[in-house]
Amino acid sequence: MSLYQFYRDPYQTELSTQVVSLDEQRLVLEDTLFYPHGGGQPGDTGRVNVGGRTVDIVDTRYSKDRSRIEHHLAEPIDASPGDSAELTLNWERRYRHMRMHTCLHLLCHLIKDPVTGGNVGAEQSRAEFDLSTPIDKLELEAQLNALIEQGASVSTEWLPENILDEQPDLVRTMSVQPPRGHGDIRMVRIDGLDFQPCGGTHLKDIREIGAVHIPSIKSKGKQNKRINVELVD
Ligand SMILES: [Zn+2]
Which GO terms fall under biological process for this protein (predicted)? Predict the structure, then answer.
């Protein structure tokens, strides 16, 4: 299967590619650096230059049938199939998403209870668990920071999707089942700590997350708790 550039190199910030189609203000390109909204991670933003004109990309989403990635433009442009397009990613925002997303996977390592939800944001992220025992906010924050300081490499691999029938417990987030029917499932491994299906963009090493803060743990039900996480800088 051919991979988009944001999967081949999630650290790349500029790309030259070609226009495939333009429908209203939704631009489809041959390849892209822009992660499309999904799996709790927001769609990327940035800029595209087509025919000497630069416009903002305000969101990136899969088309309804998930067959293509649509870059949502801030204003209309003229573009024809085959035109060259230069992409520039809003790296500052995306890098925070990467740090946050990898951090949420670390929480999945620290808390073995079922994950009921999760959402990545540049300013604040959250993960929800059905907790079997109460957890202490400060203790969790200290554990998380200790792990990050220790470091661990992060890698991705593609496995045949029947692995999920054989090992259903690999799926940690019950509310977000990985897309099936494409043959392979993308797995994200944090060396020695966590291994789960995920389509998101991740860091090379958890050390890059840097110091984190847990401002609150909120009750969302009898056992369901929402853990909010922020990056210290
Ligand atoms: Zn993930």
Answer: alanyl-tRNA aminoacylation
Ligand 1 centroid to residue 215 C-alpha, Å? 21
* Distances 165 to 22, 162, 183, 199 between C-alpha atoms, Å: 39, 5, 13, 18
Query: What span, in angstroms and rounded, lies between the C-alpha atoms of 200 and 216?
Result: 24
CA dist., res. 24 & res. 218, Å (int): 42
Q: Report how far residue 21's alpha carbon sits from residue 67's, in angstroms, rounded to the nearest whole number.
A: 13
Determine the distance separating the centroid of ligand 1 and the alpha carbon of 219, expressed in angstroms: 22
The continuous run of DSSP H or E covering 152 comes out as: none
Ligand 1 centroid – CA 24 distance (Å): 31
Q: What is the CA radius of gyration of the chain?
A: 19
Q: What was the pLDDT predicted at 177?
A: 67
Predicted pLDDT at 166: 85
pLDDT in tens, 180-224: 777 789 999 999 999 999 999 999 999 999 999 999 999 998 889
Assess if CATH 2.40.30.130 describes domain 12-89.
Answer: yes
CATH for the stretch 94-231: 3.30.980.10
Domain boundaries, the chain: 12-89, 94-231
Quickly tell me which residue has 């801030």 as its tokens. Answer: 74
